[in-house]
Amino acid sequence: MNKIGITTTVPVEVLLAAGYQAVDLNNLFITSDKYDQYIEQAERDGFPKNSCAWIKGIYGACLKHNIKEVISVLEGDCSNTHALAEVLKARGITTYPLAYPYSHKLDDVKEAINHFMDLFGVTRKEVEEVRDKLNNIRSLAKEIDRLTWKDSKATGFENHLYQINCSDFTGDVDSFAEELKAKINEIEKRESIDKKVRLGYIGVPPMMDDLYEFVTKFNAYIVYNEVQREFAFPRAKQADNIYQQYYDYTYPYDLDFRLEKIKEQIEVRNLDGLIHYTQSFCYRELEDVVIKEELEIPILNIRGDKSRQLDSRMKLRLEAFLDMLGDLKEGRNEGFRN
């Protein structure tokens, strides 16, 4: 089975129907013990130091793991992906374009997915058969999400991990399904996590892997991971077909659509505050302006770059934010926005 790299969540049903093993290059990069070497490789090859670490890491992971084919999302994801595709092509790597239409019209989404299916020579029937199988597995990830926010048994990091892995199903669909079942069985036997402050995490998945554990030291608990949850398609079972499923996927489209779903989850999960993560040198940093104007909830913006660990400044700001939220719950503070 040939491997094909993906740089974000794409209609993986099409790739699996075509006989590929999808590999999320983000996950290859960030989970590597030598992740910094991927960044260094990109910089040696000419990537600017003041460019996104994720883009450099994806590039390095692609070369290190000898990935010969890559899906390049040219609309609806990172603004640097188009340039990355050009560099990969210059390195002899085949790239296939995919564009999530900014119009966010169902007809345009249908046209984009049909074009994607044509690229790989698969039929809608074949794709829908794969979609049914994957959505059963996504339901297991959804159960871990429920065990987080409803039963307070799964940790914020587990919530993050198992939903984000739905981008490529860890490269082995059946094995991932069994892993999810075993994890659900383990989580169900736990005592509930007792934390005072209920947090939401919005924005792209974090570079730092110690964020989730750090907040628990201050009587807080992340019970909502926005983009990771979207990667797991929590509303997939309600979609009649693949077109509706990817139309209802918030990440690639306008901010208003994302905010609508975030507002719903703030209410459903009874959140006390939000951490909005942005990546250095990413255009999505500008979205923080609108997010803070539109959401009536305390929000802390933290900005990551190359490090996989929270630095001292981030820790101080997080501690102050969490202390404030604790005071708010006890009626001792007016609010916080930063």
Automatic annotation (TrEMBL):
Organism: Acetohalobium arabaticum (strain ATCC 49924 / DSM 5501 / Z-7288)
Pfam family, one: HGD-D
GO molecular function per UniProt: hydro-lyase activity; iron-sulfur cluster binding
Keyword Electron transport: no
Family membership noted in the UniProt record: Belongs to the FldB/FldC dehydratase alpha/beta subunit family.
Cofactor list: [4Fe-4S] cluster
UniProt name for this protein: 2-hydroxyglutaryl-CoA dehydratase D-component
Keywords: Iron, Iron-sulfur, Metal-binding
This protein's record includes keyword Iron: yes
